[in-house]
Write a structure and sequence with these properties.
GO terms for molecular function: 4 iron, 4 sulfur cluster binding; cobalamin binding; epoxyqueuosine reductase activity; metal ion binding. Helix content is 33%, strand content 13%. The chain is of the alpha+beta class. The protein has a four-stranded antiparallel β-sheet, with helices on both faces. The model has no long low-confidence stretch (mean pLDDT 96).
Length: 308
Amino acid sequence: MNRSILSQRIKTEAKRLGFLSCGISRAEFLEQEAPRLERWLKKNMHGEMGYMANHFDKRLDPRLLVDGAKSVISLLLNYFPKETQEKDTFKVSKYAYGEDYHHVIKDKLRQLHDFISEEIGEVKGRAFVDSAPVLDKAWAAKSGLGWIGKNSNLLTKEVGSFYFIAELIIDLELDYDTPVTDHCGTCTACIDACPTQAIIEPYVVDGSKCISYLTIELKNEIPTEFQAKMDDWIFGCDVCQDVCPWNRFSKPHKEPLFNPHPELLSMTKKDWEEITEDIFKKVFKKSAVKRTKFFGLKRNIEFLQKES
């Protein structure tokens, strides 16, 4: 089967599996990303995320992750919910409403890998979902799935940015897509709206100031300088996405596993303040919110209570 037909069949199968879109790029060294990543790390914008400084070379070259890698297949999976939380409550990022995306996407990637092997014989490769040294957004942009916006998220004209990014890196030559142009223009909505001024300049986010970092990655106490700046977020933050004009095109996902636990949407501030470990385990049994553990979530809630 020629590369062009196979590439098209892979994209068709990705759609069948529920992915929003699929783009393919050559597995090679990310030349433009190297100096950017180095500058970001030198300025300690990764805060306590020590793992970001690990495997620097692997982060920039997929051939060091997968022997004989030839292609990076990038995929987007929508998580924009049909319903969101009540207005006046403590907020959880939309991506964590349903089941942990790692498991949901890994299963789909496995099926896609199997499909490729069935089509042409054994293909070596690995699936990646935000849990290895892979620059997801850079690969997705390189394969034409969108552009990196001023909030450092991947943006797409048709569907905005409420989606997960994943990769299948394989040892097979395919047809390669080309990047799209930047469509942020003069807009600064995300920069203006960021509650902690974490977007320090267009396209540069100081991770150590981001609410997602403060509520999930940071293991110590949240610094008092962020008092009255957390905007009621207790797990993650969607502000820079919520205000992005391109997200007016977001459509609800069709993945049942991403549907929220019914109790989550109706929880009031009082419910959050009185949450017990049993309720935490019930509501977030399979959710990404488990990453903070019960005590991490309580820390975040208590930090916000000090503001009132």
